[in-house]
Amino acid sequence: MASSRIEQIIEEIEEFIDSCKFQPLSSTKIVVNKEELEELLRELRMKTPDEIKRYQKIISNKDAILEDAQSKADAIIAEAQAQAQKIVSDSEVMRAAMEQSRQLIDETNVQAQEIMDRATEDSNNIRMSAIRYTDDMLGNLEKIMSHTIDTAGTKYSNFINSVQSCYDIVSKNRSELSPSVEPSSYTQPEADQEDSLDD
Fold first, then answer.
1. Buried b (16+ CB within 10 A) or exposed e, 4-37
2. Closest Cα partner for 40 from 15, 64, 13?
3. What's this model's pTM, rounded to 2 decimal places?
């Protein structure tokens, strides 16, 4: 970086002083050209305000740069914090969604099991009802058939007795007409005997 004019003037003053001669019999006092030194000092006074302004401008620019950098840094930090908060929020939403999903699955499984249990119970009840209904129907049919068999047996027996009575009367009348003919005892026909055994 180039040195400022003030620094250059100061260096010129130093060089000027170094170039001056000492007074006779002294090692500390020098003889200076007043006009030349005043010229350098006058220029120094004139340049000082400009240099101060330049430095103030540099400082001001530096402050502005630092302020802009700080603003950008703050914006980056705020954005990072917002992103972090969003990530945390999204994580919370995801966790809540997963928890709700797990609860929904559990509730669905419970409801499905209850439905299966009710269906099984209803199926068993229907099966037992069907068995009872069928058993009742078969029991009634059994009673009807038993009653039918008893009734038919009684009617058949009455019919046989009626025929036997008629046969006895016929045989008696026949023997009275022909005393020499022995009436043969009634014998059930062979076919009727087989039908009777089948019944």
1. ebbeebeeebeeeeeeeeeeeeeeeeeeeeeeee
2. 13
3. 0.34
